[in-house]
């Protein structure tokens, strides 16, 4: 009988371990070599910062998009190249370069890239064939079809058809603000603004007035789902080795925990990987759920002859039967359901700043009084008070809540200033930096509504024609956001009522107020009185920059006027019970 040495099994184990380790090192070496070869044969010959093997410039971005890109813009100019893991990216940083690319050669820059978290874990979480939103889908003839369908119902000329929905929301907003004022303590007001802007968007999309529970659900899903798409994060979106390692870790989760736990080593990183995907699935489940239910309800109403104006209803009533599949309809619904998200975010930023600047509030109030002579302003009377319109425009430029826009991808080979950019390259218009382009804006680091008043268009030192988009928070050229007219209208209506009825003052949040912050992730801190666009955001890498919580104490300017308007004054808008159809 052969005797086996007690050392022999461990010796074999060590040999196996060394073999596995050597194999891993060998494969990693091949991967790095391929990485260097790929970079050496890059298709874009633009300057840019040197990156690390495997990860490129990803880690340099994770300390904050805005500041990293601003620093590189000073060094490399209006257009430069980054490597983000296995992806090559062109970054556009000035208005002049936007004009050369997105405007003058719009056809080449009209596609969208795909990201693993958004297009994979989120969009495909429940159904591999589930449609992405129109704004995040690669260019195709279908995209052109969808945008043509949406052109009329989202235009500024058609928005008055939906004023009766907006009137209800503005009444609800002023009631919420009045309750906050009655409390006598500082509260975070973001929920009021998001429920108003997202609520108006959902109401006019489906043609019905939603209750508070549905509106809160739509707002919550859209605020959190926007965090699924960002640049340079999460790492597995850009570095295949990380993606493969995470998949392997999840597949071997049980044995990994079995091995590590006896040694007291943490396995929470395994849970965080799973939680990110589970969260994406939950969000998608909620989004598909309420959009599907609301589409079904809309069709039921249309089938019995309902003529209530709505963006989707107007489309469904005019297209030939069979033109749109259920998948097409779901894509339209998910695209527009949360279109008030950026408007609510910008209002949250702006009001926190206004609360620390009583002089700006008084200037706004005097401007309203000058137009309306002591009467309550009409929130539907969009743009009548120039200072209110200018406040909304300037807040969009200054805070630039959508920091890096919605990324593009080259739809075809293109040459810009002699530089060849092949098809399929990730293109990012750095909206935060473009909105601070000194050639386009004087005093770019200051919030100055006056740059949009009295014939000025971006600069206070010169009057100029209103050519092009005022700022890049909603894009430019082809694939520009179609909801801009609605965002501008909601911003004006909200600000004119808020600043007419109330004075704002910053204050610290008590425990109850902190617990009520929406969404709760914003309660990790409180914004400074300066309300700095970078320092006072929840995360420096979010695609949409959410501001930290801000305590605002409201004081009613004229309690009798407010009480009168809440009781019956809003009905004078003539939009309470019926739509205005004069623009049909």
Automatic annotation (TrEMBL):
Domain of life: Eukaryota
InterPro entries to which the protein is assigned, alphabetical: Cyt_P450 (IPR001128), Cyt_P450_E_grp-I (IPR002401), Cyt_P450_sf (IPR036396), Cytochrome_P450_fung (IPR050364)
Cofactors named for this entry: heme
Keyword flag Aminoacyl-tRNA synthetase: no
Keyword Heme on entry: yes
The entry's keywords: Heme, Iron, Membrane, Metal-binding, Monooxygenase, Oxidoreductase, Transmembrane, Transmembrane helix
Single Gene Ontology MF annotation: oxidoreductase activity, acting on paired donors, with incorporation or reduction of molecular oxygen
Bilayer-spanning residue ranges: 15-33
Pathway: Secondary metabolite biosynthesis
UniProt-annotated binding residues for heme: 481
Protein family: Belongs to the cytochrome P450 family.
Annotated protein name in UniProt: Cytochrome P450 phenylacetate
Organism: Favolaschia claudopus
């Amino acid at each position: 009988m052969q005797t086996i040495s007690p050392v022999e099994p461990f010796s074999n184990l060590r040999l196996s371990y060394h073999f596995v380790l050597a194999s891993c090192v060998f494969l990693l070496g091949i991967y790095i070599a391929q990485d260097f070869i790929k970079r050496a044969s890059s298709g874009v010959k633009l300057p840019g910062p040197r990156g690390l093997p495997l990860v490129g410039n990803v880690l340099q971005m994770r300390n904050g998009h805005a500041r990293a890109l601003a620093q590189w813009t000073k060094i490399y100019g209006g257009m430069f190249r980054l490597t983000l893991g296995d992806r090559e990216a062109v970054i556009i940083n000035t208005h002049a370069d936007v004009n050369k690319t997105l405007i003058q050669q719009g056809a080449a820059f009209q596609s969208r890239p795909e990201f693993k978290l958004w297009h994979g874990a989120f969009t495909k979480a429940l159904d591999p064939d589930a449609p992405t939103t129109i704004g995040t889908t690669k260019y195709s003839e279908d995209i052109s079809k969808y945008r043509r369908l949406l052109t009329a119902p989202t235009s500024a000329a058609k928005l008055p058809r939906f004023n009766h929905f907006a009137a209800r929301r503005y009444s609800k907003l002023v009631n919420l603000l009045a309750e906050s004022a009655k409390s006598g303590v500082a509260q975070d007001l973001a929920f009021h603004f998001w429920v108003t802007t997202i609520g108006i968007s959902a109401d006019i999309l489906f043609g019905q007035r939603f209750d508070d529970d549905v509106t809160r659900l739509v707002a919550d899903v859209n605020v959190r789902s926007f965090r699924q798409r960002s640049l340079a994060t999460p790492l597995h979106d850009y570095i295949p080795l990380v993606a493969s390692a995470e998949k392997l870790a999840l597949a071997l989760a049980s044995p990994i925990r079995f091995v590590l736990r006896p040694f007291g080593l943490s396995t929470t990183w395994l849970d965080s990987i799973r939680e990110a995907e589970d969260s994406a699935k939950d969000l998608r489940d909620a989004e598909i759920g309420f959009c599907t239910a609301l589409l079904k309800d809309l069709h039921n109403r249309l089938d019995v002859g309902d003529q209530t104006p709505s963006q989707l209803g107007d489309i469904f009533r005019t297209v030939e039967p069979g033109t749109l599949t259920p998948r097409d309809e779901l894509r339209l619904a998910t695209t527009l359901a949360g279109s008030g998200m950026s408007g609510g975010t910008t209002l949250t930023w702006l009001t926190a700043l206004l609360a620390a600047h009583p002089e700006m509030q008084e200037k706004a109030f005097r401007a309203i009084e000058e137009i309306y002579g002591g009467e309550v302003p009409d929130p539907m009377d969009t743009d009548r008070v120039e200072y209110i319109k200018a406040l909304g425009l300037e807040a969009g430029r200054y805070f630039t809540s959508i920091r890096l826009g919605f990324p593009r991808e080259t739809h075809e080979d293109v040459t810009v200033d002699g530089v060849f950019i092949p098809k399929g390259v990730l293109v990012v218009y750095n909206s935060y930096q473009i909105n601070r382009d000194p050639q386009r804006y004087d005093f770019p680091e200051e919030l100055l509504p006056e740059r949009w008043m009295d014939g000025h268009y971006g600069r206070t030192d010169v009057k100029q024609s209103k050519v092009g988009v005022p700022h890049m928070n909603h894009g430019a050229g082809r694939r520009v956001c179609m909801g801009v007219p609605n965002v501008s209208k909601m911003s004006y209506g909200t600000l004119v009522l808020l600043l007419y009825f109330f004075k704002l003052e910053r204050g610290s949040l008590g425990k109850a107020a902190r617990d009520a912050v929406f969404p709760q992730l914003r309660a990790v801190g409180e914004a400074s009185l300066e309300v700095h666009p970078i320092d006072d955001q929840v995360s420096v890498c979010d695609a949409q920059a959410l501001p930290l919580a801000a305590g605002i104490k409201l004081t009613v300017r004229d309690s009798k006027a407010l009480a009168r308007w809440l009781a019956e004054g809003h009905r004078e808008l003539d939009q309470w019970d019926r739509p205005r159809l004069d623009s049909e």
